[in-house]
Amino acid sequence: MPSTDKKLNESKEEVDGLIGAILNEIAAYLKDGYTLWDGKELLQLAAALNHAKSLALLDWENSLHQKDGSYYDYFEKKRQQYEVLERMLPYVSRITVQLEQGVRIGDFVLELSAHLRTVNQIQYFHESLQSIREYHKQLPMPENRNEFENRASLFAVANELEIFINLIK
């Protein structure tokens, strides 16, 4: 069914675009400490994923189960990435001061957003995130409670990013 494949590929583009937009907003907040983002992309992503998964299931059923279900698997991975993004946002929103560590993670998120579909760069992203973590370990201890809480939120964001990267495969 070529028309179904076309619709599924369009859904892939839409979902990837929305995930990229969400990551760009997260990066902007981490780097600049301010954004007027209303979060509508999260709602759009949820709707797009539901539509795409039902379309993928229909495509698989119409092929009399002869296809491997790769579209469905793809959208299931994207659903899991969506859940990671949902978990990450409260940590991001708790960051109240501009920290150099936040800028580093923001740059990383921006780069990740630009290469969402590049499966062969997963190792690079793991190494880059590990390098950021190692750098953060070398920094002096926080000077006050506020800095401690902000760094803890950044640490949680880094943990969620690691899970997100593992889901790119």
UniProtKB/TrEMBL annotation:
A Pfam cross-reference name: ArAE_1_C
Gene3D superfamilies associated with the record: Putative aromatic acid exporter, C-terminal domain (1.20.120.940)
Residues annotated as domain Putative aromatic acid exporter C-terminal: 5-166
Stated name of the protein: Putative aromatic acid exporter C-terminal domain-containing protein
